[in-house]
UniProtKB/TrEMBL annotation:
Organism for this UniProt entry: Pantoea brenneri
Region (Disordered): 238-261
Database matches in PROSITE patterns: PROKAR_LIPOPROTEIN
UniProt keyword annotations, A-Z: Signal
Name assigned to this protein: OBAP family protein
Signal peptide: 1-19
A Pfam short name: DUF1264
InterPro entries reported in the protein's UniProt record: OBAP-like (IPR010686)
């Protein structure tokens, strides 16, 4: 069973590693929180249990881009729950402070489970091999040995990611429809300024991390994953009109419309 760091231990580690260093990217309209609402919040915090939240025990920081638009890139703060040996789930925020905005979710499955998916389903998922091996995916605060063991578990997994708040563009409220996100697969795809800014805030060196992970065995990506590389772009669309997530530069093909049953 994949056992990650307990929340209490993780909190102590993160307190010293700059995990309160990435404020939210947006400012939402609204009146200041009233004293009565603050009191209600405090009471609920004391009296109510939150098992799904308490089950979150690992923090990962990485990067996503819109499927079909490689120029729409953003940092993504993942808070991960391990469901079993083959399945994890993550809530994704635009920062790591208390007021961070919830951007979306990512489901993470093992290579074994990915191989069982139908061909059309496989197109929705991206590989994690490059993210791990390149050092662009980090687990802030973990000692090198623990980081290495964790990344060995993640390197050959696959993720399906939907962003519901596009904080790179929508700076006040979650506008529009969800977008399918992808992960980088090779050098030269990612905006180096994003990586440099992340490394500075966390006081890490992604090049050094890459070297430390050189011995981690990464399998070739399974056929069907990272379908954007073969020009298969999948995004939700409204019944009328085009997609909402273009940044106007790089496109890999027409978007496939996904319809709910």
């Amino acid at each position: 069973m994949l056992k990650l760091w307990p929340v209490a231990a993780l909190s102590l580690l993160l307190a010293g590693c700059g995990a309160n260093n990435s404020p939210a990217k947006v400012q939402s309209p609204g009146a200041p929180t009233s004293s009565s609402l603050k009191l209600l919040e405090t009471g609920a915090e004391v009296m109510q249990s939150r098992p799904p939240i308490d089950a979150i025990n690992t923090y990962l920081d990485g990067f996503h881009f819109y499927n079909g638009d490689q120029n729409g890139q953003m940092e993504a703060h993942h808070y991960v729950t391990v469901l079993n040996e083959d399945v994890m789930q993550a809530v994704i925020y635009d920062g790591n402070t208390r007021d961070a905005r919830l951007m979306g979710v990512e489901y993470i499955i093992s290579e074994r489970l990915y191989k069982t998916l139908p061909p059309e389903e496989k197109k929705l998922w991206h590989s994690h091999q490059y993210e791990v091996k390149s050092g662009t995916l980090i687990a802030p605060g973990l000692p090198e040995a623990a980081d290495h063991a964790l990344m060995k578990r993640i390197v050959n997994t696959y993720g399906k990611t939907w962003h519901t708040w596009h904080t790179d563009r929508d700076k006040t409220l979650p506008i529009g429809i969800p977008a399918l996100m992808m992960g980088f697969t090779a050098d030269g795809q990612m905006d180096s300024r994003l990586l440099a800014d992340r490394d500075r805030r966390f006081d890490v060196d992604s090049k050094k991390i890459r070297a430390q992970r050189a011995d981690i065995v990464a399998h070739p990506a399974e056929p069907g994953a990272n379908a954007w590389q073969q020009g298969e772009v999948i995004q939700l669309q409204r019944t009328h009109g085009g997609g909402e997530h273009s940044h106007g530069q790089t496109h890999f093909g027409p978007a496939e419309q996904l319809k709910q049953p």
